[in-house]
Amino acid sequence: MSSNYDGHNSPLCRKCICEFNRLEEARFWSRIMMEHALFIKLGLPADEPELIAEAQVFEERFHRLLNELNRVKKLNPELLDDLTAAVEDIIAFKAKILRLQLQCKILPGSNYPLLLDHIRREAERFLGLLTSPVPEEPIVLLLQQEVFWLRIMKEHIEFIIHLLDPSERELIEQAEAFRKTFSRLLETARDLQSMQRTKPRNFSDVLPFTMNVIRHTVELRNFKAAAHELAELCELLGIVASPLLLDHVRREADKFLNELDNLLPAVKSCDTSRE
């Protein structure tokens, strides 16, 4: 996502004219969806062959779409329609599996209900980017990003904790510290988002908070990268289905950081308290 901004003396300063690069977003999120299908497949119990086969179909479907996205230079209407339909279908699939688990109609396997809800929310975000990217005030967009991604980051940590072997005490201790930090950051982001709805002329607390978010997210990204390297070297005890899972969550942390980096200039441009 890239943004253009009106000068802060203009009455239009508060409007962020955001240009979503749909092709770039589609490439990133299609890979994420493909990997979600793989993780669901690996986590389903062996006595659910039909659901396993359905997950495999989604993995192959998004793989084909990703190949097509990597070949084109522009997201044409036909490809956009195919992609939108695929995202809508995988949202329904994720919701179906979650619903079956909540109703005790299938055994959970290793797919936590919160994990299924987590990846469903990510798919819904992707669908929104494809169908209705609406420009907002930069500070509104920034806080929306922070509330969404901080919840995602917090849940990543919680999943990692439950996948590590109990003997991995040092890693678990580090992860628990991250969990506490990101739980606090998420609570603060939600508070700031609520306060911002009163539409203050400037909101000076948001910028230092965001810099703090960036600092902690870089640390978390590095933790995820180190865990991925350990898994690749077969030096990580636990029940991580594939080292790819740890690389997957590391890429999402990088995505969060990239989105913050793109929005910060707009927020700074419109912050009259900095004069």
Supply database-style keywords.
275 residues; Ferritin; two-stranded antiparallel sheet; 8 helices; 72% helix
Walkthrough of the structure:
It contains eight helices and two strands, in the order ββαααααααα. The protein is mainly alpha-helical. The chain folds into two domains: 1-8 and 15-135, Protein of unknown function DUF2935 (Ferritin, Up-down Bundle), CATH 1.20.1260.120; 138-275, Protein of unknown function DUF2935 (Ferritin, Up-down Bundle). Helix 5 packs antiparallel against helix 8. The longest helix has 28 residues, at 169-196. The two termini are 27 Å apart.
- H/E order of the elements? EEHHHHHHHH
Considering the protein shown, what is the CATH homologous superfamily of the largest domain?
Protein of unknown function DUF2935
Major beta sheet summary: 2 strands, antiparallel
DSSP, total strands = 2
User: How many domains is the backbone divided into?
Assistant: 2
Q: For the residues shown, what is the average pLDDT? A: 91
Uncertain segments of ≥5 residues (pLDDT<50)?
Answer: 5-12
Mind telling me the C-alpha Rg? 20 Å
How do the strands of the widest beta sheet line up side by side? 1-2
Count of runs of 4 or more consecutive helical residues? 8
State the end-to-end distance: 27 Å
Top-tier CATH class of the largest domain: Mainly Alpha
Could you please say which CATH topology of the largest domain applies here?
Ferritin
Helix content: over 70%
Given the C-alpha coordinates, what overall shape results? globular
Can you name the CATH architecture of the largest domain?
Answer: Up-down Bundle
Structural class, by secondary structure, is: mainly alpha
Could you tell me the strand content as a percent range?
Answer: under 5%
